[in-house]
């Protein structure tokens, strides 16, 4: 490895010879001698987002940490963005791409409110639903990945669909979409998802689940994630979306932690037993 | 001869602040055959009189379905309507593709309104020579919009445009109160009767010259023509032939009167 | 209009020998026939109101909204050619959106007025276009508190960069009116359309200039706006009309800094009072006649 970032991740010159710009389109070849590159990795990142669908709505949570590599760089970063009364988006991955997407959603919201800028039942019906928003975001993400310039995020979009039923779906930096009664991005996909699935194995279980149980399951997962995810923190945001709107709390603290399990962990550091 | 200097293009105001080219374009709408639209709380209906150039030619299309949830009826230059309707189809598909949501009728109407306005403020363009009635159902329920060559668009409860449409409008105004609570069938009858009001003495509505389209809450926009309108005509005008079974209801009427 | 027929009024962007652009003056004529539109800048917000003449019984009631939202905190009401108004609004929305994407913050009302003034003026410069047949009133509320840039995460530094000054007063209610020539001024109370003379006379009676002490409140403004539209309508009494009203308050006010329709109950109450006020005036006049 050398000190030139543009060489990282490429075939080594000393073995394969230097890059042959002859194969580049003319517009590129003369100028740089290298192919155009876009984002290769995220920089400041947020970790997992987790969400559960219950009978009347959806619970979603993400902690307030933005990491710079392994450095806990920013501790008051809110990664749940309420779009309107019906939809919340949770962002994992690159924080500056999240800010870009937030501005994009902001301008979309301004446009949506040109025609119905006031509160009443009629306007609520025409409000953009979580499903509409997820479709839109998945097109944005897919377009960017097809341009080889992905937005380095994993998103959960949750809320209500047009008919008022709970909605939860994900889209990632490749434009892949997926929907399930419980979802988790990042490390949470490995740690939280199995726990959530134990509580909500299928759609039927989701329809039987009440809000309290859903919130409890999510909080439990946030705790487990804090125990084991080294890029997480103990302050988090949690939102509940149902017919009454979005209830977002941005300064929740993990409760009832027990680190007793840490005693059992073997194999690190200087342990001898 | 009186020469009006202010009517040569659509970028010249008259001293009274009028734009004659736009006003003349509105006249083109009155050359088209009549179309009528009505909405109730649950349905939106369009009805139109089709003309044929000559006995052996086909009839001009008057109603164009755009998307599953709405369509339009036109009066005036059909080719201008086709340009606008193609644009509307593209926009409607874009909405479904990007947001998975049927486009709101108010939005699509505003978009063609904006397009039409451009044609009235730039030299070398002409205003569209067509009036449209855009009807259907979106997230906020059934709607009917009128579009004019000037770019004016307005939401109506009922509307009639085209040749002799004043008579249709008079009929609509007379029954205005009853539309909101009308059933699907009643609304269709009102629309057909309103069209009939605008026909000249020697004309009747027949299966050949009648177009009808209905959409409702949970009922996609559907165009009825030919044999499919016979039943509507019969129930509306109560003209079951008495004993004269050999003759099709519609055609018989046209010959008779 | 002595110069009609001299040929200098047939094309936009052409001066007459006495230095007038007739096409712009004719565009003003189009405005003068439109329904009355007014804007009132109050102590704690802005009210926009419109006399919407109802041309046909077949129009859907309360449906065809004409006062447009340009950005969350800003509205536009216009009088004159309706489609030109929509063109204006559409451009204003684009300006507001492009400002946001450049500066990551909402456009100040003064900047929007400036940009739209320039846009409208450009339509008086070329023979290939015609001027706008509208006069537009822009009302808005610029945030008084420091707002986060769009997309900001976290709270950021408490002081330091960005020219933050503790306790500095900024923002507030703003009102501008743009004419077909592109000319615009800031106003305390603005009126245009058919009934503008009567409306202006009424506006001048209101306490709107901060130099005269405390201005009227937003709630009072709503009631005055309704009354003024009713007064302005007196001259075209034979025609039906609908009153359309929107308002913008501070973040701690009733609209939370957003441009919104005045709630139905409040509008109807304002209309009721307007009608009573009008009847009162009629009686006074009758009383005088008898004397």
UniProtKB/TrEMBL annotation, chain A:
Keywords: Cytoplasm, Nucleus, Proteasome
Main location, first listed in the record: cytoplasm
Subcellular location: Cytoplasm; Nucleus
GO CC annotation: cytoplasm; nucleus; proteasome core complex, beta-subunit complex
Biological processes per GO annotation: proteolysis involved in protein catabolic process
Pfam family, one: Proteasome
Gene3D superfamilies in the cross-refs: Glutamine Phosphoribosylpyrophosphate, subunit 1, domain 1 (3.60.20.10)
Keyword Nucleus assigned: yes
Region of interest called Disordered, as start-end residue ranges on this chain: 21-41
InterPro entries listed in its UniProt record: Ntn_hydrolases_N, Proteasome_beta4, Proteasome_bsu_CS, Proteasome_sua/b, Proteasome_suB-type
Family, similarity comment: Belongs to the peptidase T1B family.
Free-text function comment from the UniProt entry: Non-catalytic component of the proteasome.
Name this polypeptide is given: Proteasome subunit beta
Organism: Acrodontium crateriforme
UniProtKB/TrEMBL annotation, chain B:
Name used for this protein in its record: Proteasome subunit alpha type
PROSITE patterns in alphabetical order: PROTEASOME_ALPHA_1, PROTEASOME_ALPHA_2
Predominant place of localization: cytoplasm
SUPFAM superfamilies on file: N-terminal nucleophile aminohydrolases (Ntn hydrolases) (SSF56235)
UniProt entry keywords in alphabetical sequence: Cytoplasm, Nucleus, Proteasome
GO cellular component assignments: cytoplasm; nucleus; proteasome core complex, alpha-subunit complex
Pfam families: Proteasome, Proteasome_A_N
Disordered: annotated segments: 238-257
InterPro entries on file: Ntn_hydrolases_N, Proteasome_alpha, Proteasome_alpha-type, Proteasome_alpha1, Proteasome_asu_N, Proteasome_sua/b
Biased composition (Low complexity): 246-257
Oligomeric and partner information: The 26S proteasome consists of a 20S proteasome core and two 19S regulatory subunits.
PANTHER family found in the cross-reference section: PROTEASOME SUBUNIT ALPHA/BETA (PTHR11599)
Record family assignment: Belongs to the peptidase T1A family.
Gene Ontology BP terms: ubiquitin-dependent protein catabolic process
Origin: domain of life: Eukaryota
Subcellular location: Cytoplasm; Nucleus
The keyword Oxidoreductase appears for this protein: no
Organism per entry: Acrodontium crateriforme
Residues covered by the Proteasome alpha-type subunits domain: 6-28
CDD domains, per database record: proteasome_alpha_type_1
Keyword Plastid: no
TrEMBL record, chain C:
SMART domains: Proteasome_A_N (SM00948)
Single Gene Ontology BP annotation: ubiquitin-dependent protein catabolic process
Alphabetical list of Pfam families matching this protein: Proteasome, Proteasome_A_N
The entry's keywords: Cytoplasm, Nucleus, Proteasome
Sequence ranges assigned to domain Proteasome alpha-type subunits in this UniProt record: 8-30
GO cellular component: cytoplasm; nucleus; proteasome core complex, alpha-subunit complex
Coiled-coil residue windows: none
Keyword Transport tagged: no
Source superkingdom: Eukaryota
Keyword hit for Hydrolase: no
Subcellular location: Cytoplasm; Nucleus
Family: Belongs to the peptidase T1A family.
Quaternary structure annotation from Swiss-Prot or TrEMBL: The 26S proteasome consists of a 20S proteasome core and two 19S regulatory subunits.
Stated name of the protein: Proteasome subunit alpha type
The organism of origin for this protein: Acrodontium crateriforme
Lineage of origin: Eukaryota, Fungi, Dikarya, Ascomycota, Pezizomycotina
């Amino acid at each position: 490895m050398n000190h030139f970032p543009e060489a990282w991740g490429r075939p080594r010159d000393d073995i394969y010879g230097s890059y042959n710009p002859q194969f580049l389109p003319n517009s590129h070849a003369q100028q740089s001698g290298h192919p155009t590159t876009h984002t290769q990795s995220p920089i400041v990142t947020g970790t997992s987002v987790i969400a559960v669908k219950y009978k009347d709505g959806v619970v979603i949570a993400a902690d307030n940490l933005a990491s710079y590599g392994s450095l806990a760089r920013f501790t008051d970063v809110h990664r749940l963005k309420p779009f309107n009364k019906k939809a919340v988006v949770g962002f994992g991955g690159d924080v500056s791409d999240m800010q870009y997407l937030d501005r994009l959603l902001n301008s979309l919201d301004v446009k949506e409110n040109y025609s119905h800028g006031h509160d009443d039942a009629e306007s609520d019906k025409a409000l953009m639903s979580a499903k509409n928003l997820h479709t839109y975001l998945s097109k944005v993400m897919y377009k960017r990945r097809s341009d080889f310039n992905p937005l380095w995020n994993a998103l959960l979009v949750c809320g209500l669909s047009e008919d008022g039923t709970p909605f939860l779906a994900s889209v990632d930096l490749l434009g892949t979409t997926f929907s399930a009664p419980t979802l988790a991005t990042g490390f949470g996909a490995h740690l939280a998802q199995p726990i959530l699935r134990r509580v909500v194995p299928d759609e039927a279980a989701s329809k039987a689940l009440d809000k309290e149980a859903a919130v409890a399951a999510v909080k439990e997962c946030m705790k487990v994630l804090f125990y084991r995810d080294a890029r997480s923190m103990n302050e988090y945001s949690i939102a509940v979306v149902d017919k009454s709107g979005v209830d977002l709390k941005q300064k929740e603290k993990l409760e009832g932690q027990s680190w007793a399990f840490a005693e059992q962990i073997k194999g690190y550091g200087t342990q001898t037993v | 001869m009186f020469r009006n200097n202010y009517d040569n293009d659509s970028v010249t105001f008259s001293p009274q602040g009028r734009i004659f080219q736009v006003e003349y374009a509105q006249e083109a709408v009155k050359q088209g055959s009549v179309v009528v639209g009505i909405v109730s709380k649950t349905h939106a209906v369009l009805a139109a009189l089709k003309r044929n150039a000559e006995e052996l030619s086909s009839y001009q299309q008057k109603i164009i379905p755009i998307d599953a949830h709405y369509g339009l009826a036109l009066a005036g230059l059909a080719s201008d309507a086709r340009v606008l309707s193609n644009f509307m189809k593209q926009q409607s598909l874009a909405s479904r593709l990007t947001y998975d949501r049927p486009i709101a009728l108010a939005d699509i109407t505003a978009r063609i309104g904006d397009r039409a306005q451009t044609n009235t403020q730039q030299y070398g363009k002409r205003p569209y020579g067509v009036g449209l009635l855009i009807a259907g159902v979106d997230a906020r329920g059934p709607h009917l919009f009128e579009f004019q060559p000037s770019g004016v668009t307005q939401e109506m409860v009922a509307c009639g445009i085209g040749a002799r449409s004043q008579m249709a409008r008079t009929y609509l105004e007379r029954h205005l109160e009853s539309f909101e609570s009308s059933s699907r069938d009643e609304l269709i009858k009102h629309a057909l009767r309103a069209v009939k009001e605008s026909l000249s003495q020697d004309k009747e509505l027949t299966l050949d010259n009648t177009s009808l389209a209905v959409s409702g809450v949970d009922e996609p926009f559907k165009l009825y023509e030919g044999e499919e309108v016979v039943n509507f005509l019969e129930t509306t005008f109560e003209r079951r032939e008495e004993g004269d079974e050999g003759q099709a209801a519609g055609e018989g009427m046209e010959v008779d009167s | 209009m002595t110069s009609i027929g001299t040929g200098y009024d047939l094309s936009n962007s052409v001066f007459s020998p006495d230095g007038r652009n007739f096409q712009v003056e004719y565009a003003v004529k189009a405005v003068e026939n439109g329904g009355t539109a007014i804007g009132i800048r109050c102590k704690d917000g802005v009210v926009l109101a419109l006399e919407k003449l109802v041309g046909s019984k077949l129009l859907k009631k309360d449906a065809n909204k004409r006062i447009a939202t340009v950005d969350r905190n800003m509205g536009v009401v216009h009088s004159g050619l309706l489609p030109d108004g929509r063109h204006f609004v559409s451009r204003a929305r684009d300006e507001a959106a492009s400002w946001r994407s450049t500066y990551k913050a909402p456009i100040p009302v003064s900047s929007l007025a400036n940009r739209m003034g320039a846009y409208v003026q450009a339509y008086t410069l070329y023979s290939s276009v015609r001027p706008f047949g509208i006069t537009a009133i822009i009302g808005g509320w610029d945030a008084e508190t420091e707002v986060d840039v769009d997309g900001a995460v976290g709270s950021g530094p408490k002081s330091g960069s960005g020219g933050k000054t503790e306790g500095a007063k900024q923002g507030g209610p703003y009102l501008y009116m743009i004419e077909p020539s592109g000319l615009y001024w800031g106003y305390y109370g603005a009126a245009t359309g058919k009934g503008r003379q009567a409306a202006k006379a009424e506006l001048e009676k209101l306490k709107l200039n901060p130099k005269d002490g405390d201005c009227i409140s937003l709630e009072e403004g709503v009631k005055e706006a309704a009354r003024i539209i009713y007064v302005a309508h007196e001259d075209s009494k034979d025609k039906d009309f609908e009153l359309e009203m929107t308002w913008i308050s501070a973040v701690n006010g009733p609209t939370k800094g957003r441009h919104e329709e005045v709630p139905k109950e409040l509008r109807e109450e304002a209309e009721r009072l307007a009608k009573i006020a009008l009847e009162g005036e009629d009686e006074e006049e009758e009383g005088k006649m008898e004397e």
